């Protein structure tokens, strides 16, 4: 990841060991100031463990957690200057909204007068100033989560940790709150780390995404770079690319490569350090494969349609090319040509979106 900004949070060789099992191993991470970074990965890869070590709820086995250059890895949670929002709200049920938001300020010895001003500002930010006197049980799930957010940011923390903050909400509400969360985080410029299972949420909210695999970071990039250019088979599969095949690199020049795939040769625009003569894996998204007539003059892979399903605005095809099964996804535009099962076709792969993966 290109990192020209300074980093508020730096993890250095962070490790959490349970007996002989490393839940997190030698993890290095820099989170640029003011940005939102998401930890994404399959269940059990260590996301929550990283977050809990940063918060101070879990002891580190070895390594460092630096916030603004200062090692906090052995500090008490209360002294870490970190705001947190969890999936299950965790508001104090016996306190009003106002008292919930004021709690952290009170603990820090902020004067009563300043508490009132800052609580009002924070509640206005999440559009809940009118509900200041209610109790959590008198609020909807979305409102409770907004209070939790106000409570986390009112202390002006150096770091905001968001652990599935919208996970308990239904889809519609979730999308509205994603937008609000993004706006608020940008406005306040608080360096934030998000853990989520929702890939769309990660792609929408994040400045950077770190994909984790077995306690380590497999790839860290901007959402677009990650989506367009997964570097390993693990990341490509995790991000839902169905077309991943073995290929051979036939030749290369400064910027391009020709690969052997399914018994044919195809151009690729980005060779990403791969050398001619080597074996590799290649990944391509269904929307970057055009299904055309078999007699189309363009360079492509000849195949046969195995399934064809019209789904809303798209047609999803499975096409067999020798032994390889491709999934292609064509828009149902007004003049699109319909191919049926058994039809011989040609697959035209977009060379700019045919990605060579690390072995
Ligand atoms: P999920 O997406 O399911 O929440 P995660 O990526 O957050 O998963 P973690 O909760 O960080 O995963 O767990 C990482 C690994 O550490 C898992 O394999 C888990 O079983 C293991 N682990 C967690 N806590 C303990 C513990 N107390 N003792 C032993 N192993 C543990």
TrEMBL record:
Catalytic activity: ATP + H2O + polyamine-[polyamine-binding protein]Side 1 = ADP + phosphate + polyamineSide 2 + [polyamine-binding protein]Side 1
EC primary class: translocase
A single MF term (Gene Ontology): ABC-type polyamine transporter activity
Organism domain of life: Bacteria
Family recorded in the similarity comment: Belongs to the ABC transporter superfamily. Spermidine/putrescine importer (TC 3.A.1.11.1) family.
E.C. code: 7.6.2.11
Cross-referenced Gene3D superfamilies: 2.40.50.100, Nucleic acid-binding proteins, P-loop containing nucleotide triphosphate hydrolases
Signal is among the record's keywords: no
GO cellular component: ATP-binding cassette (ABC) transporter complex
Domain ABC transporter residue range list: 9-239
Keyword terms of this UniProt record: ATP-binding, Cell membrane, Membrane, Nucleotide-binding, Translocase, Transport
Function, as annotated: Part of the ABC transporter complex PotABCD involved in spermidine/putrescine import. Responsible for energy coupling to the transport system.
Organism of provenance: Microvirga guangxiensis
InterPro entries linked to this entry: AAA+_ATPase (IPR003593), ABC_SmlMolc_Importer (IPR050093), ABC_transporter-like_ATP-bd (IPR003439), ABC_transporter-like_CS (IPR017871), Mo/tungstate-bd_C_term_dom (IPR008995), NA-bd_OB-fold (IPR012340), P-loop_NTPase (IPR027417), PotA-like (IPR005893)
Family matches, as Pfam families: ABC_tran, TOBE_2
Subunit structure: The complex is composed of two ATP-binding proteins (PotA), two transmembrane proteins (PotB and PotC) and a solute-binding protein (PotD).
One of the GO biological process terms: putrescine transport
The protein's name in its UniProt record: Spermidine/putrescine import ATP-binding protein PotA
Membrane recorded as keyword: yes
């Amino acid at each position: 990841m290109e990192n020209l900004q300074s980093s508020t949070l730096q993890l250095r060789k962070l490790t959490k060991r349970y007996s002989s099992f490393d839940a997190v191993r030698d993890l290095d991470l820099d989170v640029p100031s003011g940005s939102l970074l998401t930890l994404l990965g399959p269940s059990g890869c260590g996301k929550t463990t990283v977050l809990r070590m940063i918060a101070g709820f879990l002891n580190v086995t070895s390594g460092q957690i630096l916030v603004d250059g200062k090692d906090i890895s052995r500090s008490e949670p209360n002294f870490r200057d970190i705001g947190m929002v969890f999936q299950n709200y965790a508001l104090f049920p016996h306190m009003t909204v106002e008292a919930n938001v004021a709690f952290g300020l009170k603990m820090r010895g902020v004067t009563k007068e300043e508490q009132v001003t800052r609580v009002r500002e924070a509640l206005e930010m999440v559009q809940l100033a009118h509900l200041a006197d209610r109790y959590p049980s008198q609020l909807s799930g979305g409102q409770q989560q907004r209070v939790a957010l106000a409570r986390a940011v009112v202390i002006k923390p150096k770091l905001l940790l968001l652990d599935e903050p919208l996970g308990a909400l239904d889809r519609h509400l979730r999308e509205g709150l994603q937008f609000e969360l993004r706006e608020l985080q940008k406005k306040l410029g608080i360096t934030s780390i998000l853990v989520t299972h929702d890939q769309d949420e990660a792609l929408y909210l994040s400045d950077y995404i770190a994909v984790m695999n077995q306690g380590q970071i497999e790839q860290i990039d901007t959402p677009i770079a990650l989506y367009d250019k997964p570097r390993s088979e693990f990341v490509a599969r995790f991000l839902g690319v169905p077309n991943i095949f073995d290929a051979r690199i036939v030749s290369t020049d400064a910027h391009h490569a020709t690969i052997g795939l399914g018994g044919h040769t195809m151009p690729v625009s980005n060779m990403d350090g791969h050398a001619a003569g080597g074996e590799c894996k290649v990944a391509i998204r269904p929307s970057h494969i055009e299904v055309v007539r078999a007699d189309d003059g363009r360079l492509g892979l000849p195949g046969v349609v195995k399934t064809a399903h019209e789904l809303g605005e798209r047609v999803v095809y499975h096409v067999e090319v020798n032994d390889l099964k491709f999934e292609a996804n064509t828009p149902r535009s007004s003049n699109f040509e319909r191919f049926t099962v058994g039809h011989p076709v040609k697959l035209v792969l977009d060379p700019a979106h045919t990605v060579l993966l690390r072995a």
